[in-house]
Specification:
By secondary structure, the protein is mostly helical. The chain has 18 helices and 4 strands. The chain has a two-stranded antiparallel sheet with strand order 1-2. Strands 3-4 form a two-stranded antiparallel ribbon. About 5% of the residues have low confidence. The protein has 3 domains: about 90 residues, no CATH class; about 55 residues, no CATH class; about 190 residues, MetI-like (MetI-like fold). The radius of gyration is 28 Å and the shape is globular.
Amino acid sequence: MELLKKYPKLFPWLFLLAVFFALCFAIEVPETYKFIRGQAEFIKDPNQSSYIFLGKEVRYYAFDVFWRLPPLLGWLPIWINDSLFFLMNEWMPIEVWNEDTQEFKSRPVVLQITRNLTAFMTFLIQLIRETLLGGLETIVAFSSWDWIDANPWAELPGLPWTIVAAGSAILAYKLSGKGLAIFAGLVMTYISIFGQWKPSMQTLSFILVAAPLSFIFGLGLGIAAFKSKRVEKALYPILLVMQTMPQYAVLVPALVLFGVGDHAAVIITMIVAVPPMILLTLLGLRAVPPEVIEAGRMSGCNNWQLMSKVLIPTARRDILIGVNQVIMVCFSMAVISAFIGAKGLGFNLLLALNQLNIGLALEAGLCISLIAILLDKMSLAWANKQIDYFGNLTFYQRNKNSIFFGLAVLFGIIFAYFGSFYFKEGYNYFF
């Protein structure tokens, strides 16, 4: 009885479970009853049975196993497939301008929306990737290939690895001190020495797009759920499904809607990373003491000021723990996203595993682990760092990290310039 008092919902669930299994074993399945396994529409087998439902031919195999869908539900997977095909290829065609052919063409509105979204994601990824590694496509997006041919100096050169390593060390020092700064410098140096710099920066550019967007959407939806019970009730079942759904299950819908590439990987990663951010934002805002909220209202805050000046700063630690979880989920998707064409360490790891190249797989996997550990430590340090609102600091004390980073950029550019003369025959190890 004590157990039932402690867990009042346990008895009804156990009773329903017992009734379910009792009915399963008590009811005899007729020999003529047919059970179905959903088949793709293009698969045809002479051993299959078929019937017509709502104008669609439904084919199925006859099974004498109880755990199968009845034939009346066999139309469902075919209906879903046909509906998605109709949305992507036929529904609401609109006229859009094609820059390549310089003419208008007809395209379904859903397809056009998904292509615009993928173009925006691709632009963000290329902007960060070419800032780190160099390239042309970002400049071409604002000009043209003819202008680039006439002005070759406009190509983004990319940042030398020494600047990125120094910037990481300075940021780690600001967040947590010398220990994390040394670790950050060693991680970046290891990645550069072992020839994994380009795929590492490709993965990092993917993370630097997915993580901030996931944070923005998660924070916004978490605030909306905190403000409205209806929004919370609508989001709760979706969050439960997304947190329990296998990550591979999202790949096929993303391929259909967004195609193959880094842009689709960012969208998939956002779908997986937003739920923990929503839950931790909601948890942090609910943990704000009522006295703090009343003090904010007594100070004359309106709803916007109460949220931005009182609630979010008070729940800062929980929200930043959400940022940490978002970053970890993004890295967990780095390898999975390689299955749909995402570039970077995950793609190299996938190739190495397919070729049974254990050495290359170990290098790529170790780089992913080191970058994930570094960002995990930095985000946790950011969450736990206390802000001194009353410190009377000098200009140098307030801006010393920015000054050191500016000096690192200057010396990094100088080293890369002189390295281009010293390493004439081979690779410029300073760039």
